[in-house]
Write a structure and sequence with these properties.
By secondary structure, this protein is mainly alpha-helical. It is 52% helix and 3% strand. It contains 10 helices and 2 strands. The longest helix is centred in the middle third of the chain and has 24 residues. The radius of gyration is 25 Å and the shape is elongated.
Length: 283
């Protein structure tokens, strides 16, 4: 059903392309609108794991910007797009539709504001767990990891080889500022440049109720699997965090975990049980 809608939207574009110039001329403005609608349908309905609404708005804004750049970087295209818009705004035959559009835009905004202000708060269908229990085992890069016995293999370097440990922290710093700070921010307070467009907002690692209360194996799971890897008990939770195991290797994930604790001055939560003597089977 979902892919039927997506393929239908893309198929309509193909049909328009085949008929364009043969049976009729498709205006460029209609082409741009058709592409925007087709991409919106694909992003909104074409994935098994839905894209969070906050991220969907960002993607659609990027698509709209790209289409606007395409339409305005060539004089012929700019004229083809601008002429019907100018005609709609200035010709007398469009007075009534123009008035309706001018009235409809603020009316729609006012209706949305009124609806948001008057809508009673509704609790979630079930309780949401901020720090849900991790699974017993995950697979990262086709390798299984037993989360119940997993620990950061580089943590012991802090005592046994401080020089190498600082190198690992520096590596984690590079990973963080290449990938994570856009949402979590320069100071790890969840105030990155994308943070205000996301719901829920990114985690504030400076909050003592976050990573200071968690073990490093928990962070390994959350970073590796991101929002798509959250269990049902964590819902409804439209986390925009990607599954970073698609972009980072195992070493990079452990390094960035070291950097998170080092930068915030926190220590990972100690295990209640005795640490395993070795983790070479995980590596």
């Amino acid at each position: 059903m979902i892919w039927g809608v997506v393929l239908g939207a893309l198929g309509a574009l193909v049909v328009l392309r085949l008929l364009d110039g043969r049976l009729f001329k498709v205006p460029l403005l209609a082409w741009l609108a058709a592409w925007f609608i087709a991409v919106a349908v694909m992003l909104g309905f074409g994935f098994v794991v839905p894209i969070p609404s906050s991220m969907l708005k960002i993607y659609l804004a990027i698509v709209a910007g790209a289409l606007a750049v395409y339409a305005t970087t060539d004089r012929d295209r700019l004229r083809e797009v601008g002429e019907p818009l100018a005609a709609f705004a200035t010709e007398r035959r469009f007075v009534i539709p123009l008035v309706l559009v001018v009235l409809a835009i603020p009316a729609a905004l006012a209706a949305k504001i009124y609806r948001d202000m008057t809508q009673p708060p509704t609790p979630p269908f079930f309780g949401r767990t901020v720090h849900p229990a991790p699974p017993n085992q995950i697979t990262v890069h086709d390798k299984p990891f037993d989360l119940t016995n997993l620990y950061n293999p580089h943590r012991e370097l802090e005592a046994t080889n401080p020089t190498l440990y600082r190198q690992k922290v520096a590596s984690g710093r590079e990973v963080y500022y290449r990938n994570c700070f856009f949402c979590h921010g320069d100071l790890m307070r969840g105030e990155g440049m994308f943070a205000h467009a996301l719901l829920p907002v990114p985690t504030n690692f400076q909050d003592p109720g976050t990573i200071a209360q968690l073990q490093e194996n928990y962070l390994f799971w959350r970073i590796a699997k991101g929002g798509p890897g959250l269990p049902e008990e964590a819902g409804p939770w439209s986390s925009a965090m990607p599954a970073w195991d698609q972009f980072l290797d195992e070493e990079q994930i452990w390094d960035v975990i070291l950097f998170l604790y080092d930068f915030t001055g926190n220590r990972p939560r100690a295990r209640e049980a005795v640490e395993p003597t070795a983790s070479h089977e995980q590596r």
